[in-house]
Amino acid sequence: MKRAKTLAALLCALCMLTACTGGRGASSPAPSPELSSAPTAAPTEAPTAPPVVVQTAKVLESYRAGDSISVLAYFTESGEPFTCTLPEGSKITPGDTVEVTFDGELRETYPAQLTAQDVTLKEPGNDYYGVWLAILTALWEEDPGLNDDADYFGFDLTGLSTLNAQEARILGTLFSQSLGKIPLFGTYEELVEQGYINDAELYWEDGLLFTLAEDSVADDRVGFQCSKWRSGLGAIFYEDSAFSFNSSGGADIEWGPMYIS
């Protein structure tokens, strides 16, 4: 009996010891990992359309460049000259007023350069610029001895109504540029005042004065006179001349008598 009680007491103590050990040694459950949210993609911006600029311009010349046709023109609002290649199929001729569509970028040359997206006719016109350029060229080539050592070209274009002031300035500037000369603008008296022409000796040592003037303008026929002057004893003059536009869009020049001094 005493042995049974001892065995029961041992079993009870063993159970208590096991319970205490299990409580102290049991590990705590691992914390649940926090769920991170998925990264949000940055909003994508819609592609920006290239800028579009539309300006009115006047065409002064056209010329072939490879398989394309390019034009010299100027913006009627700012007066700035530029060149561009006409889009394929454009039916534009010198003298026309057009609308030019481009990206607003002007390459800084003289004239400026731009890439035209579209050139559309706004109003047809006559090629007065081209005729006056041909007359200047004829004066330059006539009596070439007067041209020797001329560094300056003076232009008195105040007698023209078929070219506005900006067109006249572009004409003189680009004509001079093509021959490596320095352009000046003014009458004989103004160039004397500026010190270029020696009025006492009637002589321009290093320049030529070109004068273009209209006598009449009627029904696309223009009467004119013109001259190239170096000195009182070195000049050529044309009087009673005229030009008119023909059915093909070109111009016929009728030269009047020429005088040489």
Mean pLDDT: 87
Oligomer: single chain
Q: What structural class do you assign from the helix and strand content? A: alpha+beta
Straight-line N-to-C gap: 165 Å
Globally, the shape reads elongated
Percent range of helical residues: 10-25%
Report on the structure:
This protein has 261 residues and is α+β, with helices and mostly antiparallel strands. It folds into two domains: 71 residues, Nucleic acid-binding proteins (OB fold (Dihydrolipoamide Acetyltransferase, E2P), Beta Barrel); 133 residues, no CATH class. The protein contains four helices and 13 strands. Strands 7, 8, 9, 10, 11, 12 and 13 form a seven-stranded mixed sheet that branches. A six-stranded mixed sheet has the order 5-3-2-1-4-6, covered by helices on one side. The chain starts with a helix and ends with a strand. The relative contact order is 0.10. The N terminus is likely disordered.
Outline the fold blueprint.
Layout: H1 2-25, E1 53-65, E2 68-75, E3 81-85, E4 97-102, E5 112-113, E6 116-123, H2 128-141, E7 152-159, H3 165-178, E8 182-185, H4 188-193, E9 207-218, E10 221-231, E11 234-245, E12 251-254, E13 258-260
Parallel strand pairs: 3-5, 7-8, 7-9
Antiparallel strand pairs: 1-2, 1-4, 2-3, 4-6, 9-10, 10-11, 11-12, 11-13
Helix pairs in contact: 2-3
